Every structure is written in structure tokens, then in C-alpha cells.
Amino acid sequence: MNKLKLLFLVLFILPLALFAQNKITGVVKSDAGELLPGVTIIVEGTTQGTTTNFNGEYSITAPADGNLMFSFIGYLSQTVPVNGQSAINVVLQQDIEELEQVVVIGYGTVKKSDLTGSVTSVKADELNPGANASVEQALQGRVAGVQISQKSNEPGGGLSISIRGSGSIQAGNEPLYVIDGVIVNNGSVAGTGGVGFTGNQNPRNPLNSLNPSDIASLEVLKDASATAIYGSRGSNGVVIITTKKGKEGKLRVGYDGYYGIQQVYKPLDVLTAQEYKDVLNSIIDLGGGDELQRIDQIEGGGTDWQDLIYRTARTQNHNITMSGGSNNLTYFTSLNYFEQEGLVKGSAIDRYNMRFNLAYDESKKLRAGVSFNGSYIHDDFASTGLGINENGGAIYTAVNYDPVIPSYNEDGSYRKSDFFVGDNPLAILDGEDATAETFRFFGNTYLEYFIMPELSAQVKLGGDVQDVRRDIFIQPFTVSGAGTGGIASIQTGRKDYVSAEGTINYTKEFEQSRLNALLGTTYEYFQTKTFAGDGRGYALPDLGINAIGSGDPLLNNLGSGRTQAKFISYLTRVNYSLMDKYLITASIRADGSSRFGENNKFGYFPSAAIAWKMHNENFMADAGWLSELKPRFSIGSTGNATIGNELTYQTFSAGSQVPFGDAYYSTITPSRIANPDLTWEKAVQIDVGFDFGILENRLTGSFDYFNKETTDLLVYIPQPLNTGFSGQVQNMGGVRNQGFELSLSWDIIRSNDLYWNLAGNLSTLKNEVLNIGDRGDIIRGGLSQIPDFSIITPGEALDSYYGYIVDGIWQEGDDFSVTNDNVQPGDLKFRDLNDDKTINSEDRTIIGKPIPDFTWGLTSNLQFKNFSLDIVMQGVQGIDKLNANLANSMFPNNFRQNRIAEPLLNRWTPSNPSNKYPSFVNPLASGGTTALINTITVEDASYIRLQSVRLGYDVPVENISVFNKLAIYVLAQNLFTVTNYQGTDPGANASGSNTAAIDFNAYPLPRTYMVGLNVEF
């Protein structure tokens, strides 16, 4: 019996011992000794877990023979056996891979911790989500010091990017783009308009040919230390794009796509038919207009023309990727289709992309690779351009067309206004057709051979070929085509770019230092060929563009052109690190270009930078809360070579035909004066900044002050008429850009179940013209019926607005003896700056600036278990914009045109003595047509925009063997914009300039809703 009792006790107690639970407490610290709150602790093999409190403490119950798993974002996970212990303290090691993040710079890479220049790196998952047709849209609001404005919201419309301000008057202000180490040929090929075509002068975006989904990382090089390696083309900053590469392992197939709809966010608020009738008749009653222009009735309830030309449009994107590889050979390929219908009927873009990346890497022996991108883009353009007077395209006419008439006559023909020169908006959309097809191929191949482990030589060949054809046909039922039986135009263009590059790279690790040296040379060749032909007078207009030669041969017009340029460069750079504390970078590049005069073929662009990793000093050992502190300083010189070709040479153009005997002969005449001294614009930039990390890099950021002075500006200088030429491009003048930049990223919460990061950037900018030589003030910017509106003068920002100050409205009982102008109560009261009692061009002054005081961006990334919520906001403050639509409403070209509602509904009348808006009875009582530019029409265009909100869910796939990843999301873009600006979009700029900003017939901003899917097999 005793033996049986003993056996029973053993069998009963042993399982209890095996499954005994221990209560375990402890503290979790970092390898730097910092207490870590929010660390996740899980009992291995179970769902039982807990997290550390604010003091890094935890308490958990676990089997005596079990294991505890500790994990924390930014640190290496660790598994600790319990072994019956009741107290377990753990030290987590920081993930070195995060610290050793590699950043791409010009002609090489560097560890992020070793950067000496001002470089911002944006990874693929940090780019803006949504319907992004181009790279710039995906970058908007993400980088301090980078301002992005939309030239047109039309699908595929161009964007304007400015990095640390604009410093050029006539040369380009856009950054240099480098994709996988090869400079891409930025810029459009064929013309953006057509003979007789009333629309779309907004250039297409040349980076549309790159699929944003193919981007692995994007680096923005801002200071001269980073950009001087690109010499004559680095003064506007450099954007380096690295596409995705394959990874070792089995074949991975992925699909990501979305489908969405887009709606007009904010159409212009114009007068309704009834308001239009009441307002215009009231103005006639007060003495304005003409009795013949009185509105007697509203036919058929009137027409909302904007509603007729706009639509709810779809957008979709489908992307398939395949990647994989062996130990040495990896590959990545993608196929992409992107479609975006335009909000204006008839406009759209379809893009087909293919990318192939292949890389061979036998470490420290041989590296080789191929990167190739091919694209086909089909554009449908709506006639929406800036136009001339009343022929401004569908948007212009829809805003201004008579709303008291129907859209069609009873016989189905388009109703034409008796008072408006422009065509019926629907006739324009149906009868003015423009399409474009663009084939583009760019890529490179490289071979790097290691002569010894520390020394390698690389050869890289790259190219970029664009082929464009644009067809335009204007039907004879339109106003433009009625007199000629239709107008047809074909424009073609081809743009070739070839580059060859050879570099030698030396990298050596010493006992307490590290050296990297680069030596190289490059050769680049550019060529553009264009052809344009148009015809009129078609007996069979249905043949349209396909029978352009069937028109009247006397009305045909042909043209062609060819340009070319060559660059040859020599470059060297040294990076030196001592004791992983003191960093030095120095570089110099020599550029020679055929674009410049015989006396200035070469330019030299040096730079130097130093940085100090203070956090690695012994005296910083007690500052455990400080993860990183790296002050840095840089200075360097860069250039700007984005000018036309052959400007240094005397050129000739076709002259008139002259009679000789019984025949006429064609002639050529000189068209430009040679300038052998023409050279690069030069920019010298100083940058002082520091990078920092706090609390094991929970809070990281950077701060910079920069001062960039650009000299030898390329300016068109008028010449005496007796020379036979109107002017010549010369080097003179200077511009300064200076400001501060701050970037922050804060992991507010980071645990396995909950993670919240808040990141933001803020940058200020002061742009100032230093001098423009003997040229005198430059007044420019005339557009259609809008007169010159900007001025370039020392002491002010580039293209500051130049107009009149409005001091209110003349009221009954005012002392009218102070003016000699024919004004009356209800007219605008302009400030008489020279006290001569007459308002004229002498009373114009600077009334605003198109360059913001500061820009900012804010992103929030919240993850809870499998859910994620991403929010992106951005804003621009202290910027003005010429609202030309408002100017056109206040000073109408035609009395019987519609207007923006707010000024007209709140106009001055004897019973409503407004002191803001005039009576509109005598709009040009003083100042003439230049009165259009004033402190009412130049508006504050500051804004805050909720750019995107994305809610996603990662479906658990642990038990679904076919999937490696399965995620779904919904997304909304441009949900709201907070602004006092009266136009459709305070961020739009129809001028296409980085400086002069004007809103005229702007393509409406789309509000987008979409649903997306991301799958990996």
C-alpha cells in the first residue's frame, strides 16, 4: 500500500512541477543604459504577454522551464530562458543596421551617420500614398526646403520644384534629376500648343515616364557640399532616385493596385443665371454697360457651364513585380498601367511602364548590372490653356460664358452667345481635339572591377531617348475652325541623351580612420530634333489629322529644328573619417560645355565640408539620453547651365522673299549677336547645421541655416536698335536665397502592438535680388489680356508683384478735388504715390511676392496591430498670387461675361456703400489696363491642406500558405484646404514659373477617393 501511495504522489506532483508557474519581474534597458518603456514581453509559444512601464519595469507569469521573448522597435529581439528565476533583467542591443543605413549621394553611397552635407533621404514607404502620376507628387510636403507647386492639375500636368529658392531670371530653376546614377534628360520635346489650338500651354511632366512604385529611395541633395559633384548643374539642388533591386531568394511575385474616383474640389463660384441678370441690369441702371446689353429673360432656366464641362473621373493603377535571385545574381522587373481621367471632359492620361533591373555582385571582385525603363504615354488634352482674350479654352469660357442661355439650340447645334466672342464651352471640348503619344526609354549598364579589395574601376553607359508626336485638329463647327474648314497640326520631336562615365574608387579602413577617394570623368551628348506642320481649308474635314496634306496648299505651314550640346567633365572627391568622430569631405568638378562662349568653355566647382560626431566623444559618455549630435559645416560652388543651345553664336533665321528678275528668292537674316564671353551662372552656398537623436533615437532631426548667392545671372539685355538686334543674353546681376530648415521625427509610441510616429518639417526662405547690373528694373509677366505684373529689382524678391495699392472705394461726399481722374462714387480709390493727382504707371509699387515666407509638412503614422492610419498635411505661408480670374471679373474684357460672384454680390451701390469692392460701373476710371494688378487681385495664397488620409489593414497570412503579404486600404486625397484665397487652388501656378505665380483658368484640383490592394506571393 505504501508503494502505491508513493507512486501516486510522484505521478501527481511531477506534472505540477513541470507546469509550475513563476511570477517574474525585471527591468529592461538599452545597451546605452537607458530604461526602455513599451518593450513587448511574450511567453514563447503562447499569446500571454505584457509591456514595460515608463520605468522599464515589467511583471509576468511564466512556466519555470519556459522562455521569454523581448522585442522593441529599433532593437534586436532577444529570447531569455526562465530557468526557474523570479527576476530577469534584460539589456537590448540597438539594431546596427538602422544606424548603418546607406544613403545614395552623387557617384557613390555613404553611411547616413557619416553624411557631412545637407541630404534628406526618403524611402519608398515614406512617399505620399495616392494617385500620383509622377515622383514630385509623391514627394510633396516630405522634405524641408523643397517647395512643389502644380503648374496644372490636368492628368500628367507639370509640376514646379524649387529647392532652397530660385536664383535665376532666365535660366532654369528646376533641380537636376539622377535615376540609378544617370542624369535624365528633363524637359519636354515637342511644343505644348498648336497653331490655332486655344488650350493647354501647360507643359507635361517629364518624370511621368517613371513609375513611382518602382522607387526604392529618393535622396534630395541641398547644400553645395552634396551638389558640387554635379558642378555646372547643381545650383538648383539634385534629386537622386534609386529604383528597386532584386533580393537573394526564391521568386517573389507582387501586385499592388488601386481604383478611385476624382471630383472637382472647388469650382469657381460665379454668378448664377438669376444673379447675373440682376447684377448686370443693376450696373446698367447705374450708368455702366449699354442698354443693348440688358438681360430681358433667362432661357430655359439658364446654364451652369462649369457643371457641363466637369465630370466625376476615374483613376486606376495596376503594378506587377517579380524579383529574386541567387547568391550573386539578382533581378527585379515590373509592369505598370496607370490611368487617370481628367476632371474636364476629354482630358486623360494612360501610361504603360516596364522596368528591368539586373545586378551581379561577386563581392570585392566584380560587379555589373543593367537598369532599364521603358514607357508609353497617351495624353488626351482638353482645350484648357491660358488662351488669348476670349479664346482661352473650355475652362475660361465655362467660367465667363453667358449663363442665361441654354447650351444647345432647338436643332441640336451649339448655342452661341450674341455678346461673347469665344465659343460655346461644349463646342470647344467636342471640336478641339489634341492627343500626344510619348515613347521614352532610359537606363544604364555598368561594370565595376576590383583591382584589389580597396581599389575598383567602374565604367557606366547611360542613355535617355524620348519620341513624341502631338496631333491637333480643330473642327469647322468651332469658332476657330469655321473660316477655314478646320485646322490640323502635327508636331513631332525626338530628344536623345547619351552619357559615358568612368570612375576609380578607393576605400581603405585604417586602425582609427577610414578613407574613400573618387576620381572620374564623364561625357554627355544632347540632341533634339523637331518638326511641325499644319494645314487649313479641308474639303473633307472628317479625315482630320490623317490627311493633313489635303488642305489648301497655300495655307500650309512647315517648320523643323535641331539643337545639340556636349558636356565633358572631370571630378574628384575625398571622404575621410578619423576615430569615427571627425569627418571631412572635399570635392571639385571641372565642366566644359558647348553651350558657353569660346572664352569660358570650362567652369570649376569646388566644395568642402566638415562634421563632428560629438556623441562619440568621451566627455559625452554621461549623456545617455543623447543618441546622436553631429554639427556640420559646408561651403561650395555650383553652376547653372540650363539655357538654350547656341546662345553664344551668331545665328540666322528665314527672312522675307525678295524679287530678283522675274522670280522671288528666299533669304536668311542674322537673328542673334554672338557672345563669346557667355558663361555659367554661379552659386556659392554656405550651410551650417546639425543632426541629433534623443532617447535612443526616438526623437531625431536636423537643423540647417543656408545662404546661397547666385551671380553672373543670364539676363536678356536690350541693344540699341541701330545694331539691328533687339537684345543679347549676357551675364550680370545676383540673387540671394537664405533660410532655416528643421526636420523632426518622433516615435511617440513604439511597441509590437502599437506604434505612432509623428514627423514634420519646416523651412523659411528669404529671396532677394542683389543687383541686375546696368539693366535697370525688369518688368515682365504679361499674359493674354493680363498686363505685365511682376518686377525684378534690387532689394526685393524675384518677380515681386508690381501694381497699385487700393485705399478703398470713392464714396459720396469725398473730396474729389484731390484727383484729376474721371472718378465717381463707387470707383476704386488707388493710392497716388507721387501726388500728381493722376493714377498712372508711375504709381505702381511692389504689392506682394510669389515666394513664401515658410513652408511645412506634417505626417502621422499610427499602427495598431494589423491596422495602420497615415495622415499627410502640408502648408505654405506668406505667399501672394495674382488671381487673374478675379482681375478678369473686376475689369472684364466684355461686359456680357460672367464674373466671380463674391465681388459682384457685395459691390458698391448707393444703398450698399462697400469700401472693398467697386460698383463696376466704370472699372478703368484710372490706371488704365494696368489697374488689373492691385492689392485686391493679388491675394494672400497661404494655405493648409489635408493632403491624404490612408487607412490600411494587413491581413494575417500565417495560415495562408499562398500569400507572403495581403493588405487592403482606403485612401482620400485633398479632403480640405484652409485658405482665404478665392481661386480654385492656391497651390496652382499657370505660368509654369518657379517664381512668377499666376492663377488663370487653372485646371481644378481633384478630390480623390480610392481603394487599394497589395499582395505578395
Automatic annotation (TrEMBL):
Q: Which GO terms describe its cellular component?
A: cell outer membrane
Residue ranges constituting the TonB-dependent receptor-like beta-barrel domain according to the UniProt record: 561-811
Where is the protein localized?
Cell outer membrane
Chief place of localization: membrane
Query: Where is each TonB-dependent receptor plug domain found?
Result: 112-238
Q: How does it sit in the membrane?
A: Multi-pass membrane protein
Identify the stretch annotated as signal peptide in this record: 1-20
- Name the UniProt key words of this record, in alphabetical order: Cell outer membrane, Membrane, Signal, TonB box, Transmembrane, Transmembrane beta strand, Transport
PROSITE patterns, per database record: TONB_DEPENDENT_REC_3
Q: Which InterPro entries match?
A: Beta-barrel_TonB, Beta-barrel_TonB_sf, CarboxyPept-like_regulatory, Plug_dom, Plug_dom_sf, TonB-dep_OMP_SusC/RagA, TonB-dep_OMP_SusC/RagA_CS, TonB-dep_rcpt-like
Q: Does the keyword tRNA-binding apply?
A: no
Pfam families for this protein: CarbopepD_reg_2, Plug, TonB_dep_Rec_b-barrel
Give the protein family.
Belongs to the TonB-dependent receptor family.
| Protein name per Swiss-Prot or TrEMBL | SusC/RagA family TonB-linked outer membrane protein
